[in-house]
What we know:
Two copies of one chain form a homodimer.
Chain A: H1 2-6, H2 20-41, H3 45-54, H4 61-75, H5 78-89, E1 95-98, E2 114-118, E3 123-127, E4 135-138, E5 147-156, E6 159-169, E7 182-186, E8 199-203, E9 206-209, E10 219-220, E11 226-227, H6 234-267, H7 287-322, H8 329-357, H9 370-376, H10 386-405, H11 425-430, H12 444-467, H13 477-500, H14 503-506, H15 510-530, H16 532-536, H17 543-560, H18 564-569, H19 575-578, H20 589-597, H21 615-623
Parallel strand pairs in A: 1-5, 2-5
Antiparallel strand pairs in A: 2-3, 3-9, 4-8, 5-6, 7-8, 10-11
Helix pairs in contact in A: 2-3, 4-5, 6-7, 6-8, 7-8, 7-13, 7-15, 7-17, 8-10, 8-13, 10-12, 10-13, 12-13, 13-15, 15-17
Amino acid sequence: MRLVETDPIFDRSDRYFLGRSERFHKGLRRMRRLVELRSEYNLSAHDMITLQQASDEYVPIYLHMSMFIPTLEGQASDEQQAKWLTAALQFRILGCYAQTELGHGSNLSGLETTATLDRSTDEWILHSPHLSSAKFWIGALGKTATHAIVVAKLIIDGRDHGAHPFFVPLRSLEDHKVFPGIVIHDIGPKVGANTMDNGFMMFKQYRIPRENMLMRYARVSRDGVYTKPIHDKLAYGAMTYVRVGLVVESAELLSRACTIATRYLAVRRQGPVTVPNAREPQVLDHLMVQYRVLPRIAQTYALRFTGMWMYSMYDKLMQQLAQNNVNMLADVHAYSSGLKSYTTTISMEGIEDLRKCMGGHGYSMFSGIPDFYATALPTTTYEGENYLLTQQTAKYLLKQIELVRQGRSDALSTTTDYLRQLVEPSLFAQQRWSVQSARDLDDANLVLAVYAHRAARVIRELEAAKQEDGVAWHDLQVESARVSRAHCQYIIAQCIAYYLASKSFARLSPATQTVMRRLMTLYHLYTLERDMGDFTEDGYVSAMQVALIRRELRSLLRAIRPDAVGLAESYGWPDFLLNSALGSSDGRAYERMVEHLQREPLNNGEMDDGVIRSYRECLRPLIRGEVGQWTPPETGRSSKL
Amino acid sequence: MRLVETDPIFDRSDRYFLGRSERFHKGLRRMRRLVELRSEYNLSAHDMITLQQASDEYVPIYLHMSMFIPTLEGQASDEQQAKWLTAALQFRILGCYAQTELGHGSNLSGLETTATLDRSTDEWILHSPHLSSAKFWIGALGKTATHAIVVAKLIIDGRDHGAHPFFVPLRSLEDHKVFPGIVIHDIGPKVGANTMDNGFMMFKQYRIPRENMLMRYARVSRDGVYTKPIHDKLAYGAMTYVRVGLVVESAELLSRACTIATRYLAVRRQGPVTVPNAREPQVLDHLMVQYRVLPRIAQTYALRFTGMWMYSMYDKLMQQLAQNNVNMLADVHAYSSGLKSYTTTISMEGIEDLRKCMGGHGYSMFSGIPDFYATALPTTTYEGENYLLTQQTAKYLLKQIELVRQGRSDALSTTTDYLRQLVEPSLFAQQRWSVQSARDLDDANLVLAVYAHRAARVIRELEAAKQEDGVAWHDLQVESARVSRAHCQYIIAQCIAYYLASKSFARLSPATQTVMRRLMTLYHLYTLERDMGDFTEDGYVSAMQVALIRRELRSLLRAIRPDAVGLAESYGWPDFLLNSALGSSDGRAYERMVEHLQREPLNNGEMDDGVIRSYRECLRPLIRGEVGQWTPPETGRSSKL
């Protein structure tokens, strides 16, 4: 943080005023500086990523670091690495990862770019047969990358061996010109992430040496013989790792919005004065505002606990995979798909609602939320579209329920053990939630029970729907999404329970423990209330219990209110990074709004005395009646212009 | 449409590339042209607004036309109108409406700007005592307006008579300079609406003549005597009118996103090929996508029918008010508050989900959704913050329930007549929904019954909560929001029923009637499913019925799918206005994406051969190893950069 805070090249005071081109070029200067800092401070890859994140803006080499190099390390053979990796590590070549096409994203098998072997010259011929085959959305491709990992269908003698990665030079290292046979464009403005040059690329019979196919796993020999890859189970792990990262990131992004909104809503005062001579109440004292803000703070903690647990599970998985033990794989894949989907969805929804909670001022860029939100939005789409991902989770759960049907409940995983309840359907149908008082709502077992019952029930319903005549798997996408959501809410509840039973929780002061327990109960009551239909539908939760949940939710909001600002600030976001007039740590929200707006270019340097340059051309002729002469009809008061 | 489509000044091909300043100045040229067109074609006020909307971008005079002139017409005395109105109608003065302050929006009584009478000079002294008193968000104030209606506390001899409107000159008609005693700035970039110069303004003992107070209702005489306004009930009508407009607008905006998304999702193909040699399925054939899109189309119709009914009620109200009959006033105020809140909320939520539905490409500005969405977003905040508004509705419903308690059910309004059910609490508690088959779900009476029961129940619960010890009105904001939502859903259902029983519906072809009935049933099932907890909580809707709803919903999606594109297109949005590569009427989504991106400034005119201007400064030094020299550690394969 100190490096970016003190170096003027990372200055962000003009962030909200720059158009796309200026912001992009400024990003490139920042990118160069990042590389210089690496050499000055001998930074590790991890440090570099951290530094880039502290500058809070994408630079094109982000994808070089996070996708291009890891792919070389993972998929290139040792000889290939010896040839390319040092140059990549030194940024003497700048890479990107070109997989998605204009016509295909999620369905990898639909990719159309071909790499056809020409035996006579020992080369691959890369080609884009249709417009829909164009590589699209490729970060760093548009203007900066010199090389790409291109994913293309590998074809030998007319036989298609499926998608494989190739190392492809794009631009001359001499003058940066795109090589003949390739067409590249930047894809233009996006909702956010506009410092990234996402690119479009088409190949026209473009040739690269046979050795440029990444050959750590699959191989093609000089005489054109294709050798299938030995399956690399560790690759599954990598996908999981990225998804865990997104769960943690969704907690962080939500907390960033919580910090800004909570601070501002504690500063702003609005509403009827009920006590004579008192000031207006803080907006954060309105119950509706508490209802919109405090559960979001609770979610940041719940998601963080979930991310921590997922990282520990990931480590365990990788240890097992290294020993060729694949027991955990399907389970981890299932919940990490669902949790990526669920957590990014509620995080993005939460950030936007926190912005709206700030009323009119939340709509100003100076509120500090819109800019990072716009850039974070695609987390709901990339690394698996959020609705598609839920099908992975649901498919796995249907397999698990089969274990129950086969009398093999003992083979259920820890996260799906609740399906055991379905062994006795009639008992299951008679189950009722045994909560009777507010105190019961703090009981970890009772809390887990309600999520477990609901998850088991919706999975059983999906199973039943699947068995209906004429129903295909793709008819059940809506039900699958419901099932995945239910399973994920159960796992998050489990993670909260693990945390509250952990040594690190035990080390907290009693007062902090009380606050944290309250916050987690608030998380649960809010979650239950939002999906209430799922819990009451079969009578498991009664009308009396619903009323209890609503009443306790209200009383918890009041109880947590005094700690709201502290809880919202606990992530420790520095002011530099928040870049928010309304959410700065000193609480000078209005003063900072005015400081910010004085930097607006329309307020500066246009003409003398703040008169805009269009005045002579556009305003003066109207005001002087030189254009658009028109006489109002003589009808007295009229709403005719 | 033809006027804006053919005049090059309204060209929109560069819309998504312009930075704020360029876009603002371009808007001013468009504004001047609008005024010229008024004179060329002798356009009415209504035509002018239509023309501005067809150009699909705010211009500063939008507020002159929609706020400044109507306020003069409504609040200025006849003499004042004679003095100012013609100049305003001719755009020789340019006005804005300055009410909101940096510290106060919703709570009007908290406004701090003062207008103090100086008897000796017969002047008002306008003053902003604190930074929080600064006028803020005032559209057209920042750079363009010459005059403002300023809302300020009227003070005579130390006595505060509350907020009143004043006619205030801001800038010289000679050179457009801001007069001494006033400080004005543009407030800087916002999420959207950046062609509007929203402004900041502070007064420092700024003097205007006493006659500049708008004196149609309240008056102050030469000797400083304040005369209270005769209450103008028609003013309530105006507020209602604006809210009805927002309901209709929320239907239109949602339909705009539906048109774009539905077209694109019918063009794009993705997913497993189930029939040999077939193409991939259209994305719109995925059930999950249908579930996200088709109910949104249904909502556009439901909201439109609601808006049409609201306009007819508004006319009725105005006729009655003209005869001093205020019977309808409270009812109309209650539902128009709630419906403005409910419809803008679901419209904005729907637009953003439709964008996400389009996957990665939805994130491109060329999708055509992000730009208009960003500008439409504040509809959830202005004309009454959406959550605050629900309290108005809830308060009214509590008054209506009192009628029931007093045995005066006959005095209930048409929209609240359902509260009559509460006369017999024990009968009410035993009510069960009598739906037994899919066919019953089309029965208008049964559909109304489920909304009516639920609305009555949550209102009764709010009443009970209010009677608990120690519970104040502001503790019930969450419950109020729930009550308002329930009431609004009932009214929308009523409006749908009115429409399906109307003559205009009867005139449709039988085939169209079938489609429309299906669509409205889809609307209901989707609405019920989303709020299921509210309907099942007290057992009114059974688990069997929930299962039925879900199954029928799925089957309706399949039934409506063939008509989806036709229904989504029925608003007839012209391509010019949509400005969407993905949603254009010819379905050439990918071709148009490429046409659009070729206009990106980074792809043009930076240097020869598409090499960006930062290459020499930022990229070449890295590629040539001139900066940031660094040697990777000798550890072989490593993820150290």
